[in-house]
Backbone:
């Protein structure tokens, strides 16, 4: 999809970080942008920023883990704008701690938001996107951790969820080849966002916000303060996403320096094939 001006974008998790970056980059192209987030205040703040680009914006409180909430979001957006041309299933959370020690609540929360959030977005929006005239595009936010399991960072539950997002995106792209709906999966490395404070949004029904375990607390605090060294500016990620949409890229890669990490995973898999006979 090359010409974005005047078209409609919906960004979940649009109140912060990468979602905000995508929203601003979409607005800079002349798109009208819907910011959907579980946090209404930040979504409204980003909607005001988007409006500065002289496009329309709408902030909607929505919980991507709740299919009824996402369906209500889609109804509101299609009622107001009549079409959706860019759907960014971006909202995501992580838990910190060894996968071996993760609780049922940890698994449920991360899978509900990161995996079912994408599924709920697809079920609520895709049928009407397929039925409308013209091209449209879906960007699912995966992660570098959807392409390889990072060593030394205890985000295994998150990694499992992001492998699922990559698989969903790859499959959907094949299924929608005959339609005018492109599909990309965004796979960033470190980005300077509030993901380290994700626990703020864990519902009470799944144990409420949990403390960050001691060994990674210092890293998390540093990242939350704006440290984290090479972490990318989310506005730059947003611009890369828009370029990926225009190019209809199956994978949107933001950190070329992480290539070796992904190559090593596939080399290990290929080596196993070599040994298979
Ligand atoms: N920051 C990174 O280094 C990094 C790297 C790779 C991938 N990602 C992915 O980027 C996406 C955005 O995360 P971010 O880094 O911008 O973090 P962030 O915490 O800054 O933004 C996430 C947004 O999602 C919202 N959200 C959380 N739960 C929600 C729910 N149930 N329903 C609706 N909204 C919800 C939050 O309120 C927040 O506004 C996530 O999918 C994350 O996994 C981040």
Residues:
């Amino acid at each position: 999809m090359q010409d974005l001006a005047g078209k409609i974008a919906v960004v979940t998790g649009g109140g912060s970080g990468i979602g905000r970056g995508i929203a601003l980059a979409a607005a800079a192209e002349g798109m009208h942008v819907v910011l959907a987030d579980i946090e209404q205040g930040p979504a409204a703040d980003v909607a005001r920023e988007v409006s500065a680009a002289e496009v329309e914006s709408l902030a909607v409180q929505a919980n991507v883990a709740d299919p009824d909430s996402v369906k209500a979001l889609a109804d509101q957006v299609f009622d107001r704008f009549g079409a959706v041309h860019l759907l960014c299933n971006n909202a995501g959370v992580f838990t910190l701690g060894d996968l071996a020690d993760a609780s049922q609540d940890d698994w449920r929360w991360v899978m509900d938001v990161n995996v079912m959030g994408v599924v709920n977005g697809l079920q609520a929006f895709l049928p009407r996107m397929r039925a409308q005239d013209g091209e449209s595009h879906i960007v699912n936010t995966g992660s570098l951790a959807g392409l390889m399991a990072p060593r030394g960072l205890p985000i295994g539950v998150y990694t499992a969820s992001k492998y699922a997002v990559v698989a969903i995106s790859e499959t959907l792209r094949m299924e929608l080849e005959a339609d005018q709906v492109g599909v990309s999966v965004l796979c960033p490395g470190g980005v300077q966002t509030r993901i380290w404070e994700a626990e703020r949004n864990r519902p009470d029904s799944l144990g409420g916000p949990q403390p960050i375990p001691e060994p990674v607390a210092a890293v998390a605090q540093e990242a939350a303060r704006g440290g984290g060294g090479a972490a990318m500016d989310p506005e730059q990620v947003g611009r890369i996403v828009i370029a990926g949409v225009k190019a209809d890229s199956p994978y949107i890669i933001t950190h070329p320096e992480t290539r070796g990490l992904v190559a090593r995973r596939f080399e290990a898999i290929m080596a196993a094939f070599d040994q298979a006979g």
